[in-house]
Design brief:
430 residues, mainly alpha, Glycosyltransferase, 3 strands, 42% helix
Length: 430
């Protein structure tokens, strides 16, 4: 569903936009440790003195503006809310002429140049939102065309072009392709003819690993430690799904089956995306059971803390695999523990919880005593209506909307909330 935020200190939302982690954003903005790589930070548009009308959140959008806007609009659409025209206009207006998006363009009227930090995660998030909203066919097609043009030879994607593929970026692009009506398995790299699923499965840990790691995915390097964040993203992406996962239904009680290393099953799972997704779900369930139905994350050298964003992603991954009963357990933990985290981290965090609730058939308007929809709506311009979507290309989009006051805060450079995004950028730097 890329940018990271601030949970115990400042946790997920921006960075790779990929999804979650507990991290000090001050470090992110200054050192790039938890959010964007140095090159990305250098290329990002300067932070605005005043946030533009239509933008969700009050924190610096330099690293996650498009990401949090996309998640907010997508969550609203999912629950039947028609977003404010100014909010949709702002998102579409962030696109570069070549179809790509960066995290934030302070002057969208100025053409993108070689210094613009084009980002596959931001672009893929925008595609998923604009495709769902309708009326932006040309924008979506251009963005998908750009994503295809920067596919790596192994079939996957990195957050920033020219880097090695990673599981999170590849997963979010798969979701974008599917949202745009493409068949991800038919999108092949120019050299090698590899599909996104080929690229994604290279990060899967198989039967050659220790028992506790089998079925998990690494973020990037083969042989690296299992990564719950990457596993949640990959378990959803391997099924060809994006941020929005439709509720599986009341009979979605199939038990999760961990990777089976007997006979030839382990080998088959290494080439079958659906079986790899099931193995990833098995790893997630084991971690959730171990930790009390939530996942953990921590910056290097820091004490591990509950990772709300990653737990929400795990709920979506389990629901995507048809494991409603397994998803219900961490969802209950979220209902009891996610409200303060979401309030602190803003629109992307509220959106992530709305999408987790949607995937499990839970009412986001009564989520552990919190109306997530009302809270999300309050972080930006007033929605147009709880009605239908605009269906005509480039439908009416005015400049109206409530401007959000600028809040200066070193370390609050991101409007946090979405798991995989930040953590991936962090790992790209380690």
């Amino acid at each position: 569903m890329a940018p990271m935020a601030h949970q115990a200190s400042l946790t997920h939302s921006v960075a790779f936009l990929a999804r979650r982690a507990a991290t000090a954003l001050a470090a992110v903005a200054v050192l790039g440790a938890a959010a964007a790589p140095a090159a990305y930070a250098d290329a990002a548009s300067a932070s605005p003195k005043k946030l533009p009308d239509g933008l969700y959140g009050t924190k610096d959008p330099q690293y996650d503006g498009v990401w949090r806007q996309s998640l907010a609009l997508l969550a609203q659409d999912t629950v039947g809310i028609r977003p404010a025209p100014s909010a949709v206009k702002w998102l579409a207006g962030q696109q570069c002429a070549d179809g790509s998006f960066t995290a934030f363009r302070a002057a969208p009227g100025t053409p993108c140049d070689a210094k613009t930090g084009r980002d596959t995660n931001q672009t893929a998030a925008a595609v998923q939102a604009l495709a769902a909203l309708g009326g932006h066919g040309d924008t979506v097609r251009k963005a998908v065309g750009w994503l295809k043009s920067v596919q790596n030879d192994d079939g996957g994607w990195s957050s920033m072009t020219g880097s090695a593929s990673d599981a999170n970026s590849t997963s979010v692009v798969i979701g974008a392709l599917a949202a745009a009506g493409e068949k991800p398995g038919s999108v092949t790299s120019e050299k090698g003819g590899k599909t996104p699923y080929d690229g994604l499965l290279t990060f899967r840990l198989g039967c050659e690993e220790k028992e506790g790691a089998r079925g998990a995915f690494t973020f990037q390097l083969k042989g690296a430690a299992p990564n719950a964040d990457a596993t949640a993203a990959a378990a959803t992406g391997a099924l060809g799904k994006g941020f929005v996962v439709e509720p599986a239904g009341p009979d979605a009680t199939a038990p999760v089956e961990p990777l089976n290393c007997k006979g030839g099953e382990g080998k088959k799972a290494g080439s079958d995306p659906a079986r790899a997704a099931e193995g990833g779900d098995g790893y997630l369930v084991a971690q959730l059971d171990k930790n009390g139905q939530h996942l953990l994350s921590a910056m290097p050298g820091a004490e591990q803390q509950p990772d709300v964003g990653n737990t929400a992603d795990a709920v979506v991954a389990l629901a995507a695999g048809g494991h409603g009963a397994a998803a219900a357990k961490p969802l209950k933990w979220l209902e009891k523990n996610a409200a303060d985290w979401a309030k602190q981290n803003g629109p992307a965090a509220y959106a992530q919880l709305v999408l987790a609730a949607h995937a499990t058939g839970t009412d986001p308007r009564s989520f552990g005593g919190t109306d997530l929809v009302a809270a999300l709506n309050a972080t930006g311009p007033k929605p147009a209506a709880a009605a239908k979507k605009d269906s005509d290309e480039g439908g009416s989009q005015d400049d109206g909307g409530l401007g959000v006051p600028w809040v200066i805060g070193i370390g609050l450079a991101i409007g946090a909330g979405v798991g995989f995004l930040l953590s991936s950028r962090k790992k790209n730097r380690l």
